[in-house]
Structure formats: structure tokens, C-alpha cells
Amino acid sequence: xxxxxxxxxxxDVLRVFCxxxxxxxxxxxxxxxxxVHPDEASRQALAxxxxxxxxxxxxxxxxxxxxxxxxxxxxxxAGHPLVGTAWLLDLEVICPPAGEVWVRGDGEFTWIEAxxxxxxxxxxxxxxxxxxxxxxxxxxxxxxxYAWAWEEEAAGRIRxxxxxxxxxxxxxxxxxxxxxxxxxxxxxxxxxxxxxxGSQLLTAPGPDGIVELGGRVRLERTLMR
Length: 225
Hints:
Layout: H1 3-7, E1 10-18, E2 26-31, H2 40-50, E3 54-60, E4 65-69, E5 74-75, H3 79-89, E6 93-94, E7 101-105, E8 110-115, E9 123-126, H4 130-134, E10 145-152, E11 157-163, H5 177-187, E12 191-195, E13 199-205, E14 210-224
Parallel strand pairs: 2-3, 9-10, 11-12
Antiparallel strand pairs: 1-2, 1-14, 3-4, 4-5, 6-7, 7-8, 8-14, 10-11, 12-13, 13-14
């Protein structure tokens, strides 16, 4: 029996960069068997239907080869999809189109090593206080804005919100690993970022332009399409 034709596509829905109590985190769809959507058009259509900020298609679970889509774009690199998929598949290396990404776990957090230049361009916009960031309205579609402010500069604690500006239904991104990499590279220090409703992202700059990005991941549900 062809279970793909009978039952459709199985998609694991994760929450990535959860708070310490397991709440929040950015939703991620992972299609473990990428063969059921073998071409870019069908993958883009499913990502649009699901409506998550990103959906990952796993092309080789042993070698960690993955393909990442927003509802409207294919991405060479994205932070929360790689952290989530590496956790789900228990990988030591994960390979998006941008390059080889090493993974480690410390029990609570899953960490990836990536280069800030792999991240898509973002406007990093600093505000004077966390309250100002909290009070922001969603801007009109346009540039991709990562709004941030220090909560406690000495401790590296940051309040952030992300506005993709794409007009694809994602008005605000709950937790954005790529933007956290860019901010870490710009500031040159380890950060503890609270983003969105309360998601937590940890970063640490490493040697040769590498930045570590870590967060908690949980499996929310499995659905069929």
C-alpha cells in the first residue's frame, strides 16, 4: 500500500526557542520525507498552505540535507528551522544550501554553529528601552526589521521583536535565529534575547566569524496534509 497517497504528507510541528516553562517558541513544520514533495513548486505550495514562518523538507535524514521555505520564499539558511530540525532528527551536522552547520546539545538547549553572513539581510533597529520595543505597531510591508533594545546591557539581555515586512501573512516573527546571529556579530558579544511573546534565544560569538545559536525545542503535534 502506498501510504503517501493514502494518508498524505506527515508533518511534525515544533516550537523552537521556547521559554524556560516550555511556552512560546516559533512554530516550525518539518516534512521528514522530502520525497513526497520532490520539486520546488510543490514545496513552496505546502509552505504557503501551512503558513508557518518556515517549513523544512528533509532530503537526507542521515546526512542532514534539508530545504527551507517561508510561505513565499526558498531560503539558503534560517536559524530556527535548523535548530528545530537538528533536535528532531538528533543530528550532529545539518546541511542547508548555505553550507555545513555543526550541532551540539547540552540537555536543555540545542545549539548550531553558523556564519552571520549566511543570514539574509535584516535592518537591525535599536530602540532606547524594552518598553519602546513592546509598544511598536506592526509596520507596513517593506523592509525586514529586527527591533531591539537592551534590557540589561551588562548581562547581555535584549528585548527584540521581528517584522518580516513580506506581506505573506507573517506580520511578526516570534523567534528569529538569523537576525540574532546578525545582532551578535554586530555587537561582538554573547546575548540572551527575549523575542516576541516570550521566546528565548541564546547566542555566543566564536572564532573565525562563527556564531553559536541555541534554544529549547519541543514537539507540539503531528499533522497530515
